[in-house]
Structures are given as C-alpha cells and as structure tokens.
Design a protein that fits this description.
Jelly Rolls; 11 strands; 29% strand; 3 helices; alpha+beta
Length: 212
C-alpha cells in the first residue's frame, strides 16, 4: 500500500527570536497530557520557549479545533547544541515526522533551517522501506525553511536537517509534537511537573518511530 507525500510545511509565524546563551538537550518532553488539565507545564529552564509553544497551540486549535486539541499529548523537543562542521544536531537524511499517523509537528530553528522537497511522491507504508524510498527520490529542487520562523508539518512533508558547511557554532532547534499516543522510548525527557508513569521501551539503532 502506498500513500502520497510531498506537501510543503506551513509557516505560521516569523521573526521569533529566542535566547541561545545556554546549551541543553530535551527529547520529547511531555508538557501537556490528555486528561491532565489544560495548562502547558514547562520546567523553569525552558520558559524561554513558551512563545513558540503558545503559538503552536494557538495554530493547532485554529486549524483543527479545540475538541481535537484537548485529546492531544503535547511534547517538546529542544536542542541548543554545538554543531561541528559537516554535521547537524539532528539525524541526517530525508524523513517524515509522524509517518503513518495523524501527529502534527511544529518546528523552529535559529540557523541551518530545515530543507524540504515537494512533489507527488508515492511511498510504501512501512517505516524502514519508506525511509529508503525517501532517500532515493528524484526531485527537481530542494527548498529551505527560514530561520526564526515556526512551521507546521504533517506526515506528508518530506524534509531533512541542513548540514553545517561553515565553522562550528551553537544551533538552537525546537519541535512541538501533538499526538494522541504516548511517546515511550527510553532516553526521552521526563517532566517532573506532570504526574505520569509510562513503561519506557528500548530505542532502535535506526531512526525511531516515537512509540513502540
């Protein structure tokens, strides 16, 4: 079975400037859980990201409705890290966030903005096979998001991290993920402001789907 991919990301905000003076790494930190109240609970050290989180939540409600919003778990991935030449702080390669799901993701970065391709690509509905297919697609051109802008992505957006070809520097990247699922891989950040206790499962060596 194949589905169609190749939509562009949707820009929802511009000129969002966030302090990058402290390095950190948080992977899929829950900041709101379905059935656990409406408040977005950010650790103090991540309060600087509330503007991005709020804009993502406002756009989600506007686009998909409040009823769907309150059924979502909301996760924050935030990385402010040293980026060597020839590398990126995210895994390389073309991929789709939330592949084969209804998950919605919002991304922001202050530099090396995400690259994406558009078209009418038919991909097999299998996580490993589709990754191979995505990285062997024939496309006319690759496009780039803009720095300091927030974009909405669904599973149809094929994108990849841009590689740093210049001198090493500190890059700031943020992703807000909306999902009905529990992201339950070992190594994900735990939010001690929320009351939850999930069974966490081993990560795979290859690119991980967020749940097992």
């Amino acid at each position: 079975m194949k589905n169609t991919y190749g939509l562009p990301p949707i820009k929802i905000a511009s000129d969002v400037i966030i302090d990058n003076s402290e390095m950190y790494f948080y992977q899929y930190l829950p900041v709101r859980l379905s059935g656990k109240g409406s408040a977005i609970l950010l650790p103090n050290q991540l309060e600087r990201l509330r503007t991005i989180v709020n804009k993502a939540c406002e756009d989600f409600i506007k686009e998909f409705g409040a009823d769907k919003y309150y059924l979502q778990n909301i996760y924050l991935t935030a990385k402010c890290l040293y980026t060597p030449t020839g590398s990126n702080i995210n895994r390389p390669g073309w991929h789709s966030d939330g592949f084969m799901t209804d998950d919605i993701n919002y991304i922001w970065s202050d530099s090396l903005p995400t690259e994406y391709i558009t078209g009418n690509f038919q991909l097999i509905q299998d996580h490993e096979i589709s990754l191979y297919e995505m990285n062997h697609l024939i496309y006319d051109q690759k496009l780039k998001c803009q720095s300091n802008c927030i974009y909405r992505l669904n599973q149809s957006v094929i994108h990849r991290p841009q590689i740093n070809i210049n001198n090493p520097f500190v890059r700031h990247f943020v992703k807000i993920s909306f999902s009905k699922e529990q992201y339950n891989l070992k190594g994900n950040a735990h939010n001690y402001l929320l009351d939850y206790n999930w069974e966490m499962k081993d990560r795979s060596l290859e690119r991980n789907h967020p749940i097992k």
